[in-house]
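YM 10:42: DUF2147 domain-containing protein sequence, as discussed on the call
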Amino acid sequence: MKSTLAAIVLAATAVMAAAQTTPVGLWRNVDDKTGEAKAEIRIGEANGALIGRIEKSLKKDAKPDAICDECSDDRKGKPITGLDIIRGGKKAEGKDVWEGGKILDPENGKEYRASFTPIDGGKKLEVRGYLGPFWRTQTWNRVQ
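YM 10:58: structure's back
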């Protein structure tokens, strides 16, 4: 009986650990310059591709009714809270990285090619945005 219970606990732990090495979940991003939390972003998966929305703005000066004035596509004029900022991105074969997606910076309305790599056992997420041959990487922290 004890060995069966131990096997179940180990299997459940392994499944939970595997689930954490994915970008799917709730993440907090941090301002590169100030170190302050900016937003919580919920990443999910639909048809094998990532989707991500701003669930909550954490900026001190955030307006609850803020809209994406700078966006130039279907997101223009949409509320920042609930805004889709991640579209696409599929798991690369044999690697723990999701590539081929796009990420929107609602502050300037620009969309960048993006990759998403869980690190530190899935507790953090490296989010890399690309513009031509240049890139910038942010590290997001898992909330859930």
